[in-house]
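Schema walk-through. Below, the input block comes first and the output block second. Nothing else is stored per chain. Lengths vary across the set, and this one has 222 residues.
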Amino acid sequence: MKKIYPLLGVIASISYIIYVIVGGVLSDGEYSHLTNAISELPYFVPQDSFVWLEKLTIIYGLSLAFFSIIAFMNFKKYKSTICRIAFLLVLFNALSGMMMTFFPMDARDSQITVIGIGHIVLAGFCAIFSILPPLFIGIGFKNVVQFRHLTIYSMISSLIIFISGCISAVGAVNEYIYFGVFERITIGTYIIWILVISMNILFSNIATANLEKYLKNKVECT
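--- output ---
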């Protein structure tokens, strides 16, 4: 399990991407990826379709949570505290995202509710826990030879998430027409980062396992 656990990160990323794309399709054109928030999907997708579509968010949250927990434990061998903190923050992001299920976004032009305020607070936590992990990983990977090539990519991802996230927040408050674009840049950058990190850890684990197997066979033959 320690070798293939990064597949959970891959599953999480793909599940979320499918959720957003398919959700938009099921809305029959009423939902716009340019102007609507991802959290507004439940208001546009038919209830009978959203019942199974919502399961993708559950798969996303649980897969990301377990991936981050195992990564946190597994990265102890690299003696990188900052990388382990990064994966802990990914866990907090996953938990905040799952809690948003119980605090849906208020419909547009409706009265603000306590649940809606809870959604905004959780969205704020998700934003923070999306910006920091790539930044910390970028710093931590400098000292991990296997993943050093992801340093700059992770830092750039953190910067993109921060900038687009700020624009998205301002756009949401001022009802900017292309608010949905910047929200997708923010979340999409984070999701793709999770996918890239997961696949690199997976490939590294497989390469290490094959090398260990080769060396073991070589020793047995001599």
